[in-house]
Design brief:
The structure is a homodimer of 216-residue chains.
Chain A (H helix, E strand, L loop, with lengths): L2 H11 L5 H10 L1 E5 L4 E3 L7 E7 L2 E6 L5 E7 L6 H9 L5 E5 L3 E7 H10 L1 H27 L2 H16 L3 E2 L3 H7 L4 H13 L3 E4 L2 E4 L5
Antiparallel strand pairs in A: 1-7, 2-6, 3-7, 4-5, 4-6, 8-10, 9-10
Helix pairs in contact in A: 1-2, 4-5, 6-8, 7-8
Chain A binds a DNA duplex (30 and 30 nucleotides) through helix 8.
DNA sequence: TCGCTTATGTGACTTTGGTTACAAATGATC
DNA sequence: GATCATTTGTAACCAAAGTCACATAAGCGA
């Protein structure tokens, strides 16, 4: 991709950043395409860049020692990854996994530039702080969900979020995969999905869930 | 308290901060004492300062619309409050509650200075970023606990954390209050505490739990 | 000491979610 | 279309946690 084209894209997706900063991003950032399904970040691999997402979605999950997994949130175009900042910052192993759910186009910023720009560009400073703040809030919402809600509500919430970020009313997932994301078991998810179908909220198919109305 | 005394305390508790910065903190910060039991922050009240804690502990909890509550973590001397940064940053209502569990002495930094110092002082910059990172990790650990662990383990973990921050093997709490923090019910907590007692991990008394060995 | 309030103990029961063990359906491939 | 792997459906059962009902017990103040 041409630098000028990159500059255009940047202007469109991160319009709140000042011009000089965007020039530097074009200069020092490395554009990368990540095919759907690829891991951007896995447990414990040290991070040396911070991604700015142009296109596609990224699913962020948490995994514990015993292999239990749980869905945290999606990242979309215009987002950056606060958790990559965590890993980078203290060189520590954070058991976080980030997978591209659609083909992702992102520009990779070297960590060193990160810090440099914080001082140099007010807009970058606010962007990074907002990223942190937004992710903290997102994690709090995740906690709400896990701590206070029952599995059926959590499924509905998961379907809603997934439908929103993928911008589609037809989701492609197996009950097994959903069970994994919600740290439950396949049978439980099948049971509850069936109930949602009976309520007329969704329509089930093999490898597919059609969303009719999640607010019934 | 004298400015010079304040300066000494600051030097002792936040020694990683550079001298000029400490001088500014003394100059612009306001020293406050918060008696045990007082709220530092409640749901939705906008924050105009960031506290640096010298003495005492602060318990941070999350509450949802329906009044369900859950313990997140403790803040101790040397900490700041990343969540106050959230509230301040976007002027948004975050349903977070911070209560002093012991008498707290803290210095309150006006938000404006916060931003100013980020650019001016490298040590402040790293301190704030580390605060964010550390709290994000803490929240992830909270998620692990809620999502992956059963109630008995969660109680043990809660007792351990509380004992550590209060630096005491004798805790003063009712089963009801613990139930609230873990978003459970009194009877369940009583039952499980009794089991822990039978295993010899704790000794129960009225309004009191004596910790014997939580690693049995 | 006598009440009274607050805290704890406990049994019985319900609900939610996890487990086991299959059966049936769907799609892909030959 | 027959075969096969994958996915989904379901029933029966189990375990954890929440609820209800009530019994004690411990501390406090009059």
């Amino acid at each position: 991709m041409e630098k000028t084209e990159l500059s255009q894209i940047l202007k469109a997706n991160f319009k709140h950043l000042e011009n000089d900063l965007r020039d530097e991003i074009v200069q020092f950032g490395k554009l990368e395409s990540i095919p759907a399904g690829d891991l951007l970040m896995d447990m414990g691999s040290p991070i040396t860049y911070v991604p700015l997402i142009f296109e596609g979605n990224i699913k962020v999950t948490r995994e514990d020692e015993e292999g239990n997994e749980i869905f945290l949130y999606y990242l979309e175009s215009g987002d950056s990854c606060a958790l990559s900042l965590i890993c980078s910052g203290r060189e520590r192993i954070s058991r976080i996994r980030a997978v591209a759910t659609e083909d992702v186009v992102a520009i990779m910023i070297p960590i060193a530039k990160m810090d440099e720009w914080m001082v140099k560009y007010k807009t970058w400073y606010y962007f990074v702080l907002e990223t942190y703040q937004y992710r903290l809030e997102e994690l709090l919402r995740t906690i709400d969900s896990i701590a206070f809600k029952k599995m059926d509500d959590r499924i509905v919430e998961y379907l809603r979020k997934t439908s929103e970020t993928q911008n589609s009313l037809t989701l492609h997932a197996t009950h097994q995969s959903i069970a994994q994301e919600l740290n439950s078991s396949r049978e439980v998810i099948s049971r509850l999905l069936k109930k949602l179908e009976q309520k007329g909220m969704i329509k089930l198919g093999r490898n597919q869930i059609e969303i009719i109305d999640l607010f019934l």
